[in-house]
Amino acid sequence: MKINIILAGVGGQGILTIAAVIDTAALASNLNIKQSEVHGMSQRGGAVQSHVRISDKEVYSDLIPIGKADMIISVEPMELLRYLPFLKKDGLLVTDSNPFLNIAIYPELEKLYTEIKSYPNSLLIDAQKIAKDLGNSRATNIVLLGAASHQLPLSDESLQQAIKTLFERKGEKIVTKNLEAFNAGKEIAKEIFSQKVV
Amino acid sequence: MKKLLLGNEALAQGAIDAGISGVYAYPGTPSTEITEYIQKSKIAQELNIHSNWSVNEKTAMEAALGMSYAGKRSLTVMKHVGLNVAADVFMNMSVSGINGGLVVVVADDPSMHSSQNEQDSRYYGKFAMIPILEPSNQQESYDITKYAFELSEKFGLPVLIRMVTRLSHSRAGVTTGERVAQNEIKLPKNARQFQLIPMHARGLYNQLIDIQPDMQAHSENSIYNKLTKGTDTSFGIITAGIAYNYLMENFDDGNCPYPVLKISQYPLPKKAVKHLFDTCEKILVLEDGYPFIEEMISDFLNENKKVIGRLTGDVPRVGELNPDNIGKALGFKVTELKEVPKIVAGRPPELCVGCGHRDLFNAVNTLGEEAKTQKVFGDIGCYALGALPPFNSINTLIDMGASITMAKGASDAGIHPAIAIIGDSTFTHSGMTGLLEAVVENTKMTVIISDNSAIAMTGAQDSSASGRLVNICKGIGVDPKHLKVLTPLHKNLDENIDLIRNEINYNGVSVIISQRPCVQLSKEKKDNIKHLLEIAIN
Question: Does domain B3-210 sit in CATH 3.40.50.2000?
């Protein structure tokens, strides 16, 4: 068993929270992990990514080879597409639909959405709204993680436990909100995929 | 249970467990998290391990040597270009040798993710004739650091650990071991060891030469240099540090058919390299950074054409290694299934919303008539982003402190207005001496210290300059009439432009401190800075 995940976003959007949940769950499940991060200059509003690799065997490279990513989870729609060369055939794409506008020329949103939807195995979700409706707009990341979770080799219980462990020091309310966000993400993914089958 | 640690964090934990009494460092990507980990470590706090930031890499390494002189183990940490700043002490302490174990950690940045160049620190290690260690993964980063201190005390020499960005900034599960107690104070046996006057230095230098065969012998048998036999001898492969992982990634479960020599300790072991030469048709060298090993083992006239790597173009000459460019060197086809869609726009880093540097650049850019001929000499820090649109404010960016001295040279050459823009921490790191030079000659130039009271680019660490800049400038001899403080805010734009215009028209050195705390700082830190400034003014 081996899974390669690329997490994408803009510096400061907090993709490492998603990484931390996956890492924690994988470590507790006795799996091997490598997870790269971006520190330094690019963090200041630039494009950032994290490569997360999990396996029951030894993981060698800290970087995912071209065409070997099982999924890309992005907290920003344009950033999702930046890493397409890494995606394997029919790999999963999960992204929030809300753009992060800090550059002079941002593509037309409709064109961006059309491009994303052209990949059959893609989930374009307004995760920000889902998180906000649940009363915690900061949990956007966890909604996206929930949406991708059905293709992770980690049980829901282990991921939920990881969320509890990581958010514990912020209080019970935050833990509950993030668990709700995770479940809402799972639900919306199920819903979108069931419509696609029809 | 294993701990999930960055390569940098694993190294830091290794240093704590090796019984260090202090870490001395200046922040710099990708090295910063090593020192930060020790600063935050509860056990390091309980053990009273020194971990405050130093003013620059040279002061850091010298302090580490002072701790070593006293018989205790010390760690000094920097990014690759930081070693240039510390090169003076680095080259001389290999001649004096050390007392307590001393390990120099240098994090290189192949592909220049956050740097001006991709210099390879292994050349410095060879230059100083000391052992070099190059871990290949997070577990080795921990283990090799403990080993480095033993090696340092065994040979009485500093030991260099070379990290690279991808190892520094990648996490994996790490098993940690026992912690060694700190050394007691124990002065050097030879009272002349640290007195490098020529008559002593000659003898000590001979000792350094004499010990080289012992270092070589140790490396030949090191557990960190491992030769694995292979069934296919059309290639023999030498990997340095992290390159090993990228190589193995190309084979299912790491079953590489070729003989592989995995190098993590230098000097390069001769016997194993000779074995590959004797048994393999070609030698492929895989190393991140410069072709250090490849150059060493290639023949100068390139007559046997046996060694291939970056110099021969089989591996890209520049940039970091990855599983794909190594796969290509092995003859595997790497196919890109999808390209990046054309609608994806670039997203370079930018100054934060609300950042004080923005308002400063806006003022400098709208000076009016003067702006047509002005040249602005920039420096290292967030404000280096002023070289990019929408600001396009700075003309040069070379190294820490070069803004002031380059502005001086340009002014001497006849360029006016010559403006230097330098951050507060960069100023205390390497700008003060340049300012003194300008003051001595009263050069016509203006130095703007963009003071955000933090080492912002690397994560807003504490700046040694906080609350001290006015007094430092006065002390250096800047005319108090031409030492001005402004607040870079949009509402002050007009008065800031007037202030800068007055100073650049002054026929001598003027200093403007543009003062507003970094937006990344916590409220607590901002309040503390306010307090420091009040003390400075009173």
Answer: no
